[in-house]
Amino acid sequence: MKTLGLIGGMSWESTIEYYRILNEMIKEKLGGWSSAKLLLYSVNFGEILPLQNEGKWDEIAAIMVDISKKLELAGSSAILICSNTMHKVADEIEKQVHIPLIHVVDETAKVIKEKRFEKVGLLGTKFTMEEGFYVERLAKNHNLRVLLPPQDDRNYIHNAIYNELAQGEFRKSTKKKFIDIIDRLSSQGAQGIILGCTEIPLLIKENDVKIQLFNTLTIHLKAGLEVLG
Question: I want to staple 121 with a disulfide (CB 3.0 to 4.6 A). Which of 56, 116, 190, 198 is the partner?
Fold first, then answer.
C-alpha cells in the first residue's frame, strides 16, 4: 500500500471524516485488519483563518507549500488538501512539489461529466464561490456552466460554514435554509449541486433533496483511495 498525505484542520470536523472514511474504504476493499497508510498534517486553523479574511493568500500558499514538502519528504505518494477553499493555493503547491496533488475540482468535474451534466450549482465559502479558482477551473478546464446563489445567500452560506458547521454545530433552521437555496438553484436549471465545502455534507444529505448532489468530500476520498491501492 502507498502512503497518502493529508493536510487537515480546516476544519478538524471534516478532517475527521477524511480519516474515518478512508479507513472504512480500505477495510472494505482489503478486509481483515487493513487500514489506510496516512500522514496527516493538521494545521491550527486559528492561524489560517485571519490570513484568509485579510486576503493574505501568498502567506497561506507559503505555509501550504512548506507542509506539502514535508509530507513529500516523509514518504507520501500524493497529497489531499482536506478543504475545498484551500485549493485556492493548489497551483502554487503543484509548482513546487513533485508528488501529485489530488485536486478536488478536477475529481468533482469527472463525476459530473460521467452524469453528462452541463450546468451545476455550487455551494461553498465565499472564497470558493466568488474568487474564480473553483468556478473558472470548472468552466475552462471542464466546460461546465456553474450557477451561484445570489449575494445574500452566498453571505449566509459562508457565515453558516464558519460560525456553525466548522464548529460542529448543525441547526435545523440552517439545514432548511440550505435546502431552500438548493431548490432555487434547481429551479434555475441546475442539473446537480456541488457541495463545495467539506463541512456541508455533514449538514445536507442526499435524501434531503430531489436533485443530484456532488459530495466533494466523498469524491475526493475515492480519488485518494485509488492512490492508496
Answer: 190
Give, in degrees to the nearest 5, the angle at Cα 16 between 10 and 20: 145
Q: pLDDT tens per residue, the chain (229 residues)?
A: 999 999 999 989 899 999 999 999 999 999 999 999 999 999 999 999 999 999 999 999 999 999 999 999 999 999 999 999 999 999 999 999 999 999 999 999 999 999 999 999 999 999 999 999 999 999 999 999 999 999 999 999 999 999 999 999 999 999 999 999 999 999 999 999 999 999 999 999 999 999 999 999 999 999 999 998 7
**Alpha carbon distance 194, 182 (integer Å):** 10
58's grid cell: 501568498
CATH among 1.10.1740.10, 3.90.920.10, 3.10.150.10, 3.40.50.1860 for 104-215: 3.40.50.1860
CATH class of the 4-103+218-228 domain in this structure: alpha beta
